[in-house]
TrEMBL record:
<dbReference type="GO" id="GO:0008926">
    <property type="term" value="F:mannitol-1-phosphate 5-dehydrogenase activity"/>
</dbReference>
<dbReference type="GO" id="GO:0005829">
    <property type="term" value="C:cytosol"/>
</dbReference>
<dbReference type="InterPro" id="IPR008927">
    <property type="entry name" value="6-PGluconate_DH-like_C_sf"/>
</dbReference>
<dbReference type="InterPro" id="IPR013328">
    <property type="entry name" value="6PGD_dom2"/>
</dbReference>
<feature type="domain" description="Mannitol dehydrogenase N-terminal">
    <location>
        <begin position="1"/>
        <end position="194"/>
    </location>
</feature>
<dbReference type="Pfam" id="PF01232">
    <property type="entry name" value="Mannitol_dh"/>
</dbReference>
<feature type="domain" description="Mannitol dehydrogenase C-terminal">
    <location>
        <begin position="205"/>
        <end position="347"/>
    </location>
</feature>
<keyword id="KW-0520">NAD</keyword>
<dbReference type="InterPro" id="IPR013131">
    <property type="entry name" value="Mannitol_DH_N"/>
</dbReference>
<keyword id="KW-0560">Oxidoreductase</keyword>
<comment type="similarity">
    <text>Belongs to the mannitol dehydrogenase family.</text>
</comment>
<dbReference type="InterPro" id="IPR023027">
    <property type="entry name" value="Mannitol_DH_CS"/>
</dbReference>
<feature type="binding site">
    <location>
        <begin position="3"/>
        <end position="14"/>
    </location>
    <ligand>
        <name>NAD(+)</name>
    </ligand>
</feature>
<dbReference type="InterPro" id="IPR036291">
    <property type="entry name" value="NAD(P)-bd_dom_sf"/>
</dbReference>
<protein>
    <recommendedName>
        <fullName>Mannitol-1-phosphate 5-dehydrogenase</fullName>
        <ecNumber>1.1.1.17</ecNumber>
    </recommendedName>
</protein>
<dbReference type="GO" id="GO:0019592">
    <property type="term" value="P:mannitol catabolic process"/>
</dbReference>
<dbReference type="Pfam" id="PF08125">
    <property type="entry name" value="Mannitol_dh_C"/>
</dbReference>
Amino acid sequence: MRAVHFGAGNIGRGFIGPMLSGSGYEVCFVGRNKRKIQELQTRRQYPVTLANEDRDSFMVDNVTAINLKDTQEVAEAIAGAEIVTTAVGISALKDIASSIARGIELRLSSKEPSHPLHILACENGIGSSQQLKRSVYRQLEPAFQERADRSIAFPNVMVDRIVPVQKHTDPLAILVEPFSEWVIPRSGMIGNYTDIKGVRYVDSLDPYLERKLFTVNTGHCSAAYFGYLEGYSTIQEAMSDPLLKARVHGVLQETGKLLIERHGFEPAVHEQYIQKMLNRFSNPNFKDQISRVGRSPLRKLAPGDRLVLPAMQAYALGLPTRHLVAAITSALFFDHRNDPEAQRLQDAIRCTGLGNVVAGELGIPVQHPLHSRIIAEYNTICMQYPHMACNGFGSVVQSLS
Ligand SMILES: NC(=O)C1=CN([C@@H]2O[C@H](COP(=O)(O)OP(=O)(O)OC[C@H]3O[C@@H](n4cnc5c(N)ncnc54)[C@H](O)[C@@H]3O)[C@@H](O)[C@H]2O)C=CC1
Ligand SMILES: O=P(O)(O)OC[C@H]1O[C@](O)(CO)[C@@H](O)[C@@H]1O
């Protein structure tokens, strides 16, 4: 069985690669980094270490790699694969769509494939595989689209494992947290396929995806943005500040109420889940940089992502949003100099004004009560943290009259 995985980065090597290899797949990484590609081709294995007290480690075998630029080789690999996965970042899916489209065309041009192809975008977000499908189909001839519909599926999935940014002498080595969860909806799968060992196949993905996105991702980035204001550089430092940890917990109690309302979770069980996630953030066996967890603030502040979506949904249901508003507003201060989105965010606040950014980028209309609450909170934070660049300070809270 053959798998093609786009992105030999942290989650690719630290999570998807081991899961597929452990299920008997030969895993071909499609990457951009020449050294990693060469090492994967020659060694055909690499070490994974668990960030637990004992630093347990294991080898991931039966792997190889192709350079993304070798388009014909990539297409051939996809044509012969049972599964294609990605972990390149949701914004980069459009950039790999044409490579996947060429592979699909090659696959469908030869004799009828004997097995279906599943294409899974293992990215943080709602509907990532379907988003990838739309980009891929834009590059496919209509005749191929009809045939692809019969033998190729793009089920949305949920993946969860914290893999921090890291550097080792061995460019393939990777340190990952022990926890991991990969959920796939059976309804999205087609034909005969071999289960991936360790994956939880479920009837409905939404409760799992929303629980993870609005707890792990919302909580983690809240810790990053609150921590950034305090001047911390790692999530571990931030989470060891009891006041900050309590605020993150506050955010997760708000998303928790929303999740309980939407999906009928048992409150006590959900609180246990929250506590487990808070412990994961605090894992003392590695350092996770605030710059990574807070990266790409415009994406994280988008209307359909981990901060604004639960805040708007909670508000609409009459649920509390105080901590979520604080987290959203703190994100508006993220000014990390090496993060192009943070720089674009600050430029936008400077050039178009805070109110327009909240309306335009976050999708919260000027008339919406959360809009004025965010602006009021922004001005409060400017006064509490005078060292921050307050590009939107002084914005007027909109009058609702
Ligand atoms: N690191 C983590 O803890 C987790 C990450 N994720 C998701 O997995 C995805 C990848 O994240 P990481 O592995 O942390 O990032 P990463 O930066 O370590 O890896 C991304 C890989 O994709 C490649 N890539 C980026 N843009 C590309 C493009 N335009 N064309 C081809 N390749 C491209 C990069 O070269 C890199 O090898 C993201 O969507 C992230 O949200 C999901 C769960 C956990
Ligand atoms: O990869 P993104 O979406 O930028 O966000 C980082 C997130 O990924 C994770 O590593 C795993 O979901 C979380 O730790 C963190 O919230």
